[in-house]
Amino acid sequence: MNPRQAFFACLERSPPALFEAALWMAAEHDPAVEPLVILHDFKWLAQRINLGMPTLPPDELGQPLLRRMNDLGFAQDDYTPLRPAAALLDKVLQRKRGQPLALGLIALELARRLDIPMVGVNFPGHFLLRVPGTDHLLDPCGGRRLYPNDCRELLQRQYGPNLKLQADHLHTAEPREILQRLSRNLRQLHLSNDDHLAALVDAERVLELGNASAADYLARASLYQRLDCPNAERFDLEHALMLSEDPIQRLRLTERLGHLPPNSVVH
C-alpha cells in the first residue's frame, strides 16, 4: 500500500484516523517519514502532556491541554515566508512550530488519547478548536479563548471589514474537510517555494477528497501550465469553467482555453 492508499484507508476507518492520515500526507513528500513509528513515539508526548494537566472534568481540559502544549514549546510558525515544514506534521512535531491547522491536528490527537472532547473548526484563515457544549472557541496556538466578538476581530484582521462572521464559519469540521484544508495549505506552500511537482501531489489529493471547487481545478491547471502539460491543463480548465458561477472568471477561462493547442492523442 502506497502513502496515498494508506491515507484514504485511514479515512475509511470508524472513526477516521485523522492524525495518521495527515502523517501519510507527509510520507508522500518524504519517503523517510514512517507514520507508524511516529504514532508509536507519540505516546511519550501524550504522557508528558498528561503529567502537567489539572484535575478537572474532561470537558474543562481543552484549554489546559493547549496551554501544556505551549509550555512544551509548541507555537505558531512565524517564519516569513512560510515553508512547507509549517504544515508537514512530522516536521511540526520535530520543530514544535507550525500553522494553526497543524498544531490543531496534534492537539486533537492528544485530546483523543487523553479522553478530552475536542473538535476542529474550519474558521477562515485560522483553524480553531472547540470543546462541544462550550460558548467559545480555542486557538490551537496557545489556547486563547475566542468568543463571538474575538472571532469577528480575527476575521477582520485576516480579510478586512467586508467579510462578516457567519454561522458556517463556526461549524464543526469533518475529517475530510480538515485534510482537504491541510492539502490546500501544502499546495500553496510548495508552490510558494517553487516546488511545483510537490504542489501537484497536494493539488491531486485536494480533488480526490471530493467536493472540489473551481479554484481547486484552476490551481491544478496552473501547475500543469508551469509543467508544460497542455492536455491536463485543458482538462482542469474545462472543469473549472463548469463549476464557476462568476461571469468574469468564466470569460477569462474561455479565453485561456482558446489559447491552448488542440487536444493531442498519442497512439
From TrEMBL:
Belongs to the UPF0162 family. It comes from Pseudomonas spelaei. InterPro entries: SirB1_N (IPR032698). Residues 65-183 form the Protein SirB1 N-terminal domain. This is Tetratricopeptide repeat protein. Pfam families: TPR_9, Transglut_core2. Coiled coil: none annotated.
